[in-house]
Give the backbone structure.
Amino acid sequence: MDKMLVTSGRVLNGTVAASGAKNAALPILFSTLLAEGEHTFDNVPLLKDIDSTAELLKSLGCESIRGEGPNQHTFKVNVSKLKTFEAHYDLVRKMRASILCLGPMLAKYGEATVSLPGGCAIGTRPIDLHLDAMKALGAEIELRDGYVFAKAKKLKGTTILFEKTTVGGTENLLMAAVLAEGKTIIENAAKEPEIVDLANYLIKMGAKITGHGTSVITVEGVDKLIPARHSIMPDRIEAGTLLIAGAITGGDVTVTKCQPHDLDALINKMKESGFKIDVTENSMRIHPLKRWKAVDITTAPHPLFATDLQAQFMALMTVAEGTSVISETVFENRFMHVTELMRLGADITPKTQVAVVRGKPGGLSAAPVMATDLRASASLVLAGLVAKGETLVSRIYHLDRGYENLEGKLISLGAQVKRVP
Ligand code: UD1
């Protein structure tokens, strides 16, 4: 299993481009199940989670092909009548987002059998809201033998109010509603930019959707969708991580091919902390700063501070001046990185959903640490950039799930990082 050796002491400088967004690409790839024929996507990141999605689509009977060389970010999915409507446990357990095949299969074929995703490092993460939404559209749902068995002759539109904001739940419902009979109104819908990207692709295929990006989405069901071509939006979490990498080393880093507006909450907090950040429509530049202030953050659904940037921001706060209170309100157990950051010398008091970080500018020192999930891995690499000595981060397969060539990108900015077997 690969590890990453991060040597501190380099100030990052230069320009780096963000890749396509994992969290937009995954639902969009599953949405191909709604229309037979050839779908073409550009800016699809090279990630393990994309491979897992392709594998699941293949098991259902769809072929996907990634381009080569300069076309390696172009991805085609050929959908013909599915050979099975079952998403097997072996594939679903690799990636929770596999549950996103439920809505489209049910809407298109009136049938879907999907394994329950099971355990996860960042909380229990149930799928009850996805299932309630399918039931509200008229599906019969049965849970048996670790699987969800869903059936519906024809889904029927209705008004659905999510009692909690859910990104995946909103996406699954959206993909089911586009082929349902009549009008579906999704209330308390998630407003994440990735939902807008999914809606935009569904609209390209012929769906009738309005209100995406707001908390009320309206869908007029149509009889048929036709495959189209789409470029996946930039990854705001990766872009934010690279910005923090520049910040934590006191460097001058410009992230291009991104949408800074999607990162307003992060940018505002970094400015509050003392950083100077220049923003254009599709790039952002962080200016060098030697000392920065601790600030508090509370994660919440978009447009508030993203839970997927909490661990990376915490790394920045471990070397800030002062005390930062970090509150996690989206997931109930997303502080797994805290004990690892403490191994690097960080002074943190973790409580259930709040962590108090007493910053120690220049106060981290290297140690072997273990990645527990995708964003936690990123936070350990960021901390390693400034922890005196050589930090060995193990289990970095988590990183490969969601960051395209992170070490290459960091090296291009001058970091000393190395993948070791
Ligand atoms: C998506 C993102 C993930 C991000 C998260 C929150 C993808 C592939 N993943 O995950 O990176 O961290 O949004 O921004 O896009 N919940 C329920 N019942 C449900 C569904 C969710 O109780 O049926 C709870 C979850 O446990 C969690 C909260 O709702 O506490 C939000 O989860 P949700 O927005 O659904 O996250 P995901 O879609 O799984």
About this structure: Residues 23, 26, 96-97, 123, 125-130, 164, 166-169, 190, 194, 307-308, 330-331 surround uridine-diphosphate-N-acetylglucosamine (CB under 6 Å). Residues 371 and 377 are 5 Å apart (CA to CA). The chain has a mean pLDDT of 96.
